[in-house]
Write a structure and sequence with these properties.
Helix content is 7%, strand content 44%. The chain is mainly beta and 526 residues long.
């Protein structure tokens, strides 16, 4: 017998037991119950929670403990050097404005008067948990943040152009809001019904978001104008809005960039009943959950600052939209690497890249750029038939240097031959969404106003008869395709439809002879 085995086993059990223990109570621990919190789901615990935080701050920092129970609260004001620790079985529940008054939204002329971004992006204090100008802040533990009483903006506004209107006086509209902070860790807890945003982080540097479960009624998390961010092992179900959204808005009154950021090992969903991601049942009791099945990863739409040096990898999508990259307010988006992505039941475009001219920002804002985008190893099935993948700039402002490789895509099919000849409108100034152009003339990829495309090892097919071309290129130069294995459309549909294309070639591809076109091609199908 190996005498070391019991020792090793005992050490492992001890380590597991230690890992299962609640946060240690030390001289730097401040239990909210010791400051008057009831945790019974009826008494309002806001003041007691904030007293515990102030006591921890006065001591130079510490851990504010939430033992099992439900803590009904309005605005919780974070401080530097503070950790909120939510033990298993604990819930921080947002009251509604009839029960308690949340902190008033601070003034922000760039949102409220100039409308450079909507109301939700322009304020932080009107939240369940908020912090401004802080450092070394954490929210940890396996408890729950339930935004039950939060207002999400959509329920009251039937028209999208009312998005700038304030929420009702005294209400809160975000679960967690952070502005101008550094060294922040959010780990292990869950968010249910997060309001306008489950998490809004604006101008936060050195941010870790790890192992969160977010099951919500609008955006899961918005990471706005932040630097050095790591988002890992998160699960997000957000049927009505984006799952993980990177932004670079003008919310801080200046151009701030979103850069040096990774998203890895995450699950994005847009079609489950709210709450059923958290309970693990993944119910779909209402078809498409009365939503567009959003739940995607997006860069934009707020795009005043730049997006640079960003990697997205090892993520899975179910019943959601895909990945969107959007510069419409002058942003320069560059050096983006996306890899190892799987998608099922894709509600619209698996890949949507849009350079536009909305230019919502200060006078003198000009069209930005999108360049050096790499997408590798993407698998998508049951893809909504109307769009395919869409990559589009605007006249005079092409998307540049796009490399897409190792893609396996199965469309639903159903496009007609007449649709294959359609010329989608430019919509230069329109809010960017994959459906903004209507049904596309291609079932696989649509490229317009693009310079520098390289597609390699692409396999495309469809489930129902499909009479559109696989690829449509319009105002494209320097396009190289190799190792394609593409199902030709029914009714003798072409594989390629070239419209104003120069310097084009396809090689080493099944069913397609090697083809090269150096001179401009006004229109050619083959």
């Amino acid at each position: 017998m190996n005498l070391r085995f019991p020792v090793i086993l005992g050490a492992l059990f001890a380590a597991a037991s230690l890992a299962a223990q609640p946060a240690p109570v030390t001289a730097r621990s401040f239990d909210v119950r010791s400051y008057g919190a009831k945790g019974d789901g009826h008494a309002l615990d806001t003041d007691a929670i904030n007293r515990a935080i102030l006591a921890a701050e006065a001591a130079g920092g510490g851990t504010v403990l939430f033992s099992p129970g439900t803590y009904l609260s309005a605005s919780i004001r974070l401080k530097s050097n503070i950790t909120l620790y939510l033990e298993a079985g604990s819930t921080i529940e947002a009251a509604d404005e009839k029960t308690a008054q949340f902190d008033a939204p601070e003034p922000n002329d760039w949102g409220d008067k100039l409308h450079y971004q909507d109301f939700g992006h322009s304020h932080w204090q009107n939240s369940l948990i908020w912090g401004i100008g802080l450092h070394d802040v954490s929210i940890l533990g396996s408890g729950l943040i339930h935004g039950k009483g939060l207002d999400n903006g959509f329920d009251r506004f039937a028209e999208w152009d009312k998005r700038y209107h304030a929420n009702p006086p005294g209400s809160g509209n975000k679960a967690i809001a952070l502005r101008d902070c550094r060294n922040v860790v959010l780990r292990d807890f869950a968010i249910l019904h997060g309001g306008w945003f489950g998490i809004l982080a604006t101008g936060v540097n050195n941010l870790v978001v790890d192992n969160l479960r977010i099951d919500t009624n609008r955006d899961g998390m918005d990471i706005d104008a932040c630097q050095n961010v790591r988002i890992t092992r998160c699960s997000v179900n957000s049927p009505w809005d984006d799952g993980i959204c990177l932004k670079a808005s003008y919310g801080l009154g200046a151009l701030r960039h979103c850069e040096n950021l990774t998203i890895s090992d995450c699950f994005l969903a847009g079609g489950f009943d709210e709450g059923t991601l958290l309970d693990g049942t993944f119910q779909r009791s209402e078809p498409a959950y009365k939503s567009d099945g959003v739940g995607r990863i997006k860069l934009g739409t707020e795009s005043n600052g730049d997006f640079r040096n960003i990697a997205i990898t090892n993520c899975v999508f179910d019943g959601s939209r895909g990945i969107a990259i959007e510069s419409v307010d002058g942003s320069h988006i560059e050096d983006i690497a996306i890899s190892n992505i799987t998608m099922r039941h894709v509600q619209n475009a698996p890949i949507f890249i849009r350079l536009g001219r909305r230019l919502r920002g200060p006078a003198g804002t000009v069209v930005g750029t999108i360049r050096r985008i790499s997408i590798d190893n993407l698998v998508a099935s049951d893809v909504n038939w109307t769009l395919g993948n869409v990559i589009s700039g605007i006249p005079g402002h092409p998307v540049e240097d796009i490399r897409i490789s190792n893609v396996r895509l199965v469309q639903q099919g159903g496009g007609t031959r007449e649709l294959g000849d359609r010329v989608p409108p430019e919509e230069e100034n329109k809010y960017p969404e994959p459906g903004m152009f209507g049904s596309m003339p291609s079932y696989g990829f649509f490229f317009r106003h693009v310079t520098g495309i390289e597609l390699s090892h692409i396999k495309l097919d469809y489930a129902k008869p499909e009479a559109r071309p696989a690829f449509v290129l319009d105002d494209v130069s320097d396009a190289y395709f190799d190792h394609l294995n593409v199902m030709r459309g029914t009714d003798h549909a072409p594989l390629f439809d070239l419209r104003q294309v120069t310097d084009f070639s396809v090689t080493a591809s099944r069913f397609i002879p090697d083809t090269k076109r150096e001179a401009a091609v006004e229109r050619e199908k083959f």
